[in-house]
Amino acid sequence: MSLGSRVKSTLTTLAAPVRAGIGLAAVGLGLILLLVPLSTHQIAIVTGIGLALAGVAALLLPALDSVSKVPARVVGVMLVLFGILIAVWPSAGAPWLAFLVGVALIGQSLFQLLQSIRNSGDQRAPHIIAALAGIVVGLVTFSWPVLTLTFFRLGVGAWFVFFGLQLIFIMLFHRRPRAPHQTSASRLRRWSRTLGASLALTLALALALGTAWVLGGVPLPAPGTFYTAPAEIPDTPGTLLRTQPLTEGVPSGAEAWKILYTTTHSDGSPAISSGTIIAPKTRGGDPLPLLSVAHGTTGVAAKCAPSLSATPFSDGAGAALEEIVTKHGWAAVTSDYIGLGTSGTHPYLIGDAEARNVLDATRAAQQFSEISTTERTVVWGHSQGGQGSLWTGQIAAEYAPDIDIVGVAAFAPAADLYGLAEVNKNDAPGKTVSAYIAATWDTLYPELDLAAHLTPGSAAPVSKIQNLCFNGQDVLAAILRGTQVPNQIFPDSLLAGKFGRLLKAQTPVGPFPAPVLVAQGLADPLVKPEQQRAWVGGRCAAGEEIDYRTYPGLNHLTLVAADSPLTPQLVAWTLERWAGKPAAGNCDDLPK
């Protein structure tokens, strides 16, 4: 026997046990996919290993079976290479897996459609309808990549188990398939198949329409001419340019207006911002106490301005705002921030820019002829606005010494932006917030080139999420879009570099010109209580006096709900600051 024959004989002898071993491994991997909770990255790793093993098995097939060697080897090599790529680079593999599922569904359905059109017969109609349903479902999978991965995981897990068992028992069961006995289908059977295929197509179309409705958000009014900058813009920040009455979403006993005013970017360059003013309908001749509100996240597109919303005063502590205006006779002013309503890029979570917008809105409110307000103010803010309110206090003495801030209240503030980006990078709300940052900071800090450094599969969701507002039905759409991002938006390498340093630079550190109240729900999944306490502890150690209040069982939104215990406490705290009563901090005994 020649050397080549002996090598071939040895390979043939070893092929069977190797394939049996691969079969056992495939069964194990399939059971892991079916039974073990896995992240998208873990799904990609397990699937990649399984595909690579399937490729090795395909390469061994010619050694035992009388099949064409070239197709088997081509398929085997492709599976091995693709499997290794997915296993060693799961962050890229997870999006590709989801994409390939959709491509495979569409490809198989197109093949079925073409075959059905070419072939005549009594099953032609149901086959065409079923193929169309498959194409629609394949298209829908592109909108739900993570959900697609979940179903894919179950299907691939079952296939791995079947494939592994087939490899193990292939030597025991090696029979030629018998041709099935051909019988003509009855008329009832033909109609049932047609009806079943039609039902499948109907459900697929309903799924597509539902996906478009849920993920598309709702049409919101685009900013009109009111938000357009006038031909001549005064140089002085805080100059009131125009006003317009607001009627929708105004609490009973109050009246409100839109405002347009001058402000500045964080680099000092001039800008235009819009906002709202609300005041009690019944007011005397004395100047009204003034509340300055920094609003929370509503989105980053121009249409997301609170002044364009059907509920412009519901953001954050809306119930407390209504009470302090209608029952205690205060006026309140809220900045939309640059880029919301007006043109330009919204400086999302850029604390210095938000604070400038808030302080200039306060100045503009003092020029409004319909009401008379004091130069003193209390500042409120929730979430993004909590960060904004703290920054407002921090820069007020330098940027707006003419404004006397007597109190700063921040509810679940995004005080530690870097910590939020690190801890919440794999959560759906965290991915949504990260998408907003990616969309705006890419323009604000072009040197970062964020668009080119996002994780695989993140660029398309970011472009979708940036056009969704974080209010009304759009909240659901934005969060659902966030759930379908296979990876964290920013790779860890970005967080460790200049981008991470810029995130850290958004942390407000004081000094603060007035007593500070920080409220935190202990069930908050977005702004983590332990992070908030660490920030408060740091400010206390720096000599700031903070009144830190925690609320067990309350999350990011229920903290500022109408029935939250914070609501009456906030109103009372605000009235006490206005009355000049001393504020008691609790730095010596911080709540856990």
TrEMBL record:
Keywords: Membrane, Transmembrane, Transmembrane helix
A Pfam family reported for this protein in Swiss-Prot or TrEMBL: LIP
GO MF: triacylglycerol lipase activity
Annotated TM spans: 12-36, 42-63, 70-90, 126-145, 151-173, 194-215
Gene Ontology annotations of biological process type: lipid catabolic process
Stated name of the protein: Uncharacterized membrane protein HdeD (DUF308 family)
Native source organism of the sequence: Leucobacter luti
